[in-house]
Design brief:
- The chain is α/β, with parallel strands linked by helices and about 250 residues long.
- It has one domain: Rossmann fold (3-Layer(aba) Sandwich).
- The strands form three sheets. The chain has an eight-stranded mixed beta sheet with strand order 2-3-5-4-8-9-10-11, sandwiched between helices. Strands 1-12 form a two-stranded antiparallel ribbon.
- Helix 2 packs across helix 7 and helix 3 packs across helix 4.
- The longest helix is centred in the middle third of the chain and has 15 residues.
- It is globular and about 55 Å long.
- The termini are close together.
- It comes from Salinibacterium xinjiangense.
- This is AB hydrolase-1 domain-containing protein.
Length: about 250
């Protein structure tokens, strides 16, 4: 449901599910990398309050169809500003296209995308947005683990981490970090399942592993979507839980 449909008015509550888009201030933004690229994105802010925290989202693998509209990230931006007073920044990594547009450059194997994360964090700082958290999904988790230690974030949420390119040294480097670290591991993940994750993430004693029964890598379906969004809110603004299932227009 678009903002226009919300403003049109409907006296009955609507179910919060699927592609519903709750009211927020949404702004098309551009990020500028230190190697001269322009990345396209969107910033979604609460309409009637200052954000309590900021979620910087890093999308799944571009060569497998990942982009800023990958559904969990799109739904986070569509719901969390209204439901939890959380600001959400989404953007396309270099060379990636979505309905918002195409970011300059070409796929960087998770290496050059570190400069994309740097541009996103510079944008957050310039806007004065509070309490930044990094949310990586799949490929986005590899970018977070390789490059996220460079930034003073409050926390990191790893969604379906495949550890496809993350090295043991990069994992071990997070040990002792002041950032809160959480990894959501689907029971039926295509790449890294709970038993394997327990071994891999033992290098980071502070990291909280959340094993999700019935979960799958792509988190398809409203039940899995709601679980992911609730886990995010439990870290960024737990006082608003449980998230409502309906919205009064």
């Amino acid at each position: 449901m678009s903002d226009e449909m919300v403003r049109a008015g409907n006296p009955d509550p609507v179910k919060i599910r699927g592609g519903i888009e709750l009211p927020a201030h949404r702004e098309d933004v551009e990020l500028h990398t230190s190697d001269g690229l322009t990345l396209v994105g969107e910033l979604a802010l609460p309409l009637h309050a200052e954000p309590v925290a900021t979620l910087v989202t890093l999308h799944p693998l571009p060569t497998a169809g990942g982009f800023m509209d990958s559904h969990i990230l799109r739904k986070a931006a569509a719901r969390l500003p209204a439901l939890a007073d959380i600001a959400v920044l989404r953007f396309n990594f270099r060379g990636v296209t979505s309905p918002r547009g195409t970011s300059d450059g070409e796929f960087g194997q998770g290496v050059d995308e570190g400069l994309d994360l740097k541009a996103a964090m510079a944008f957050i700082t310039a806007r004065g947005l509070p309490n930044p958290w990094l949310l990586g999904w799949s490929f986005g988790t590899d970018v977070v683990l390789a490059h996220g230690r460079d930034y003073p974030v409050i926390g990191v949420i790893l969604l379906s981490p495949p550890l496809r390119t993350t090295t043991p040294a990069e994992l071990a480097a997070w040990a002792g970090s002041s950032a809160t670290m959480v990894a959501l591991i689907p029971e039926f993940d295509d790449f890294l399942r709970p038993a394997e994750a327990a071994v891999a993430f033992a290098a980071i004693p502070e990291l909280e592993l959340v094993n999700v029964d019935g979960g799958r890598h792509l988190w398809v379906g409203e039940e899995q979507t709601s679980r992911v969004l609730s886990e995010i809110v439990a870290r960024l603004n737990p006082g608003v839980l449980p998230l409502p299932m309906t919205w009064n227009l």
